[in-house]
Hints:
The chain is an all-beta fold. It has one domain (12-132): Jelly Rolls. The protein is 3% helix and 41% strand. It contains 1 helix and 13 strands, in the order E-E-H-E-E-E-E-E-E-E-E-E-E-E. It has one helix at residues 39-42, and strands at residues 18-19, 35-38, 48-55, 65-67, 72-78, 80-85, 88-93, 97-100, 109-111, 118-125, 132-134, 140-144, 147-151. It has a 6-stranded antiparallel sheet with strand order 1-2-3-10-5-8. It has a 4-stranded antiparallel sheet with strand order 4-11-12-13, with no helix packed on it. A hairpin with a 2-residue loop joins strand 12 (140-144) and strand 13 (147-151). The termini are far apart.
Amino acid sequence: MxxxxxxxxxxxxxxxxxxxxxxxxxxxxxxxDRQRRKLGDALDLTNFGVNLMHLPPGCISSQRHWHxxxxxxxxxxxxxxxxxxxxxxxxxxxxxxxxxxxxxxDGHQLVNRTExxxxxxxxxxxxxxxxxxxxxxxxxxxxxxxxxxxLHKDGSPY
Length: 158
């Protein structure tokens, strides 16, 4: 990319990647090598978020989940991932997209089962007070005293 790039444009490689996840306990390991560059934050976007995600071989995008209020959209920039939903598995390759409407209780997850890195562009809105349910594990996100918290499905904290 051009080194003279200036706002409102940016070179995504100048955005520091966040590695891993903030999942509690054993749920973090499968996403430990995931990298996200928060491009939306770097560009001061407030209505929606945009992340450039690198998934190395064997890594997951997230635990299988769905959002109560936020839509999500994923574009596969390069590589190949497996999309897992309640309907089963399907392969997404470069140029393919997937969308996950808010409030639809169909957990989704992307897994890189290849020998090469995959790069994804994630877009999601920033609707307030969104809650998250995880389909396959004992975890959910709820608002407690004004903060997002990971909880067990019985409501007890991690």
